Automatic annotation (TrEMBL):
It comes from Tepidanaerobacter acetatoxydans (strain DSM 21804 / JCM 16047 / Re1). This is Uncharacterized protein.
Amino acid sequence: MAVGMSRDDQSRIVKDYDVFLERCYAQPMGASVDKSNLKDNLQIINEVGYKNVMVDTEEQIDFLIRKIPFMLLGLNK
């Protein structure tokens, strides 16, 4: 589930606004344990189409939320 939205809501915003849904490959559960989101991701991809879904890994998320801002602020040295 993305941002507390049901699959119906996610399908509706894709249809109404042609947005991209960002999904995580796995969900961190703590203590170095991850829960696979494969089944949920596959369901939403089948529902809205692959052209509107982006699946992220933890490494990609880290790059987006930490490394890019650090580089832009000149803090990556």
